[in-house]
């Protein structure tokens, strides 16, 4: 029984936010409807071999047409908040003029959420750049940062009277290094110079949008919360006594964590990182004033965490099976200057993504952040979840025991981090629905709700029921404490 799980006996801060997350390109569909034009993911999915099974985001899970039904589902689960993204390619289709019909969709979504008592948690960039802007260089072009601030202003103009929680970027590491260097994500390039330019220009875009939205909100006397979501990891040296592994772990920590955290929170790139990537010209992208722009105060930091990374500086043993790849396109390292780094298995259980399951890593990460960044804003775990090969029972139920355990164990790991002093204010499970899992297409299912890809019917899995019970339990404990106290 899930009620016996340790996570059901934890105490939670009174205003802790329980939610679930999605992203526009992964769920909406209607890729060329309502004035929307190609995003880089629509274009990338048409490249042969780019996405497993030749899948595309064309229809995704048809959320564009089923939005009220999906919000009703969130309500039955008892979610406090719903984290979603707006599609830049829907709001500013060709990268130039604003599409009112696109804004109207998000306006209806926000109204529906507020009507259901659910806090809208909006992300402006979850990887779907208008293809028209990619054709002008995408994030390698500094101009895209200024276009982003205009897009942010357009969304704020339509929703700023109702949306209080704003996230600029989701996981900039993926949309820069995995898209421009590793090439597994759109735009599918293998260009470290462009990749590091993309990193800096996304930081700049974040800073420009923060300044713009803060100014607009202050001017209108509105209280908004601004932040960014990073995917952070513990880069664990495979053999902590081996200097080669320690050096590899330092490099991955620099590229994966500190390249984002330091400019945003401390106003400077780490020196060791700048020297590691010197030949790729990151320094030349940094113009006077950029770091001050980038490090403007934010109100929260979103942390996405799925797994740690066990890092070695030695090649993998020859008999080690290569890790899973979505398609047979050749795999390339997304890490400029640190391509030699390997990630050997340390024997932990793994999900269908081949990602390690290690809830203690999440505790460690959340506690470490507070210790390493004295000016750290409040944290929200904005994504965490797992893909497994679900089996549908004869009665239509999905008994996803592994996902249920994954979620409860990670929630418990967050409670542990809070006990150890981490300032964590919320948890969003990834994902509400099975959806378009980027280069994996529809093959990997992360939803706590199953989607039938023929009928688009939604069926809450056992993990959804467990999550709903957990939320209800956390709230009833609070109510009980309030009465006793
Ligand atoms: C995140 N990695 O992506 C994204 O924010 C979601 O859109 C996505 O569906 C979810 O996690 C599951 O993949 C990631 O390589 C992509 O470690 C890659 C990694 C982590 C997260």
From TrEMBL:
GO molecular function terms listed in the Swiss-Prot or TrEMBL record: beta-glucosidase activity
**What are its E.C. numbers?**
3.2.1.21
Keywords recorded for this protein, A-Z:
Glycosidase, Hydrolase
- Keyword Hydrolase included in the entry's annotation: yes
For region Disordered, the annotated ranges are 312-343
> Which Pfam family, giving just one, matches this sequence?
Glyco_hydro_1
- Note the PROSITE patterns from the entry: GLYCOSYL_HYDROL_F1_1
Q: One GO CC term of this entry?
A: cytosol
**InterPro entries under this entry?**
GH (IPR017853), Glyco_hydro_1 (IPR001360), Glyco_hydro_1_AS (IPR018120)
Q: Report any one BP term from Gene Ontology.
A: carbohydrate catabolic process
Query: Active site located where?
Result: 383 (nucleophile)
Q: Which family does it belong to?
A: Belongs to the glycosyl hydrolase 1 family.
**Cross-referenced PANTHER family:** GLYCOSYL HYDROLASE, LP05116P
Tell me the protein's name. beta-glucosidase
What organism, scientifically named, is this protein from?
A: Agromyces fucosus
């Amino acid at each position: 029984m899930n009620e016996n799980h340790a996570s059901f006996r934890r105490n939670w801060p009174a205003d802790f936010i329980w939610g679930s997350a999605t992203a526009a390109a992964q769920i909406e569909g209607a890729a060329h409807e309502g004035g929307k034009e190609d995003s880089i993911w629509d274009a990338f999915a048409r490249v042969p071999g780019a996405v497993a099974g030749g899948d595309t985001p064309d229809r995704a899970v048809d959320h564009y047409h089923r939005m009220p039904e999906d919000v009703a589902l969130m309500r039955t689960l008892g979610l406090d908040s719903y984290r979603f993204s707006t599609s830049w390619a829907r709001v500013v289709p060709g990268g130039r003029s604003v599409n009112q019909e696109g804004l109207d969709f998000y306006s209806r979504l926000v109204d529906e959420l507020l009507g259901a008592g659910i806090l809208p948690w909006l992300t402006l960039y979850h990887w779907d750049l208008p293809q028209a802007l990619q054709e002008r260089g995408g994030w390698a072009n500094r101009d895209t940062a200024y276009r982003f601030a205009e897009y942010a202003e357009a969304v704020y103009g339509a929703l700023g009277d109702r949306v209080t929680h704003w996230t600029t970027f989701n996981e900039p590491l993926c949309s820069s290094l995995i898209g421009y260097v590793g090439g597994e994500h759109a735009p599918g390039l293998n260009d470290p110079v462009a990749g590091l330019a993309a990193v800096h220009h996304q930081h700049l875009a974040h800073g420009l949008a923060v300044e713009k939205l803060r100014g607009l909100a202050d001017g209108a006397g509105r209280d908004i919360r601004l932040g960014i979501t990073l995917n952070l990891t513990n880069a664990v040296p495979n053999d902590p006594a081996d200097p080669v592994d320690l050096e590899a772990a330092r490099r991955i920590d620099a590229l994966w964590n500190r390249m984002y955290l330091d400019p945003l929170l401390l106003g400077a790139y780490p020196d060791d990182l700048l020297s590691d990537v010197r030949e790729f010209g990151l320094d030349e992208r940094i113009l006077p004033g950029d770091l001050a722009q980038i490090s403007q105060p934010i109100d929260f930091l979103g942390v996405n965490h799925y797994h740690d990374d066990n890092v070695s500086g030695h090649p993998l043993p020859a008999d080690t099976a290569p890790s899973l790849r979505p398609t047979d396109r050749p795999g390339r390292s997304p890490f400029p200057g640190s391509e030699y780094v390997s990630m050997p298995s340390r024997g932990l259980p793994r999900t269908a993504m081949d990602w390690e399951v290690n809830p203690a890593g999440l505790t460690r990460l959340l506690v470490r952040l507070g210790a390493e960044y004295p000016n750290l804003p409040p944290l929200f775990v904005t994504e965490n979840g797992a893909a497994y090969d679900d089996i549908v029972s004869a009665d239509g139920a999905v008994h996803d025991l592994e996902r249920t355990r994954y979620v409860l164990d990670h929630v418990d790991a967050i409670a542990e981090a809070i006990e150890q002093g981490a300032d964590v204010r919320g948890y969003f499970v990834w994902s509400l629905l099975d959806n378009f899992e980027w280069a994996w297409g529809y093959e990997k299912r992360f939803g706590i709700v199953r989607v039938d890809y023929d009928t688009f019917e939604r069926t809450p899995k056992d993990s959804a029921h467990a999550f709903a019970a957990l939320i209800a339990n956390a709230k009833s404990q609070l109510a009980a404490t309030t009465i006793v106290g």
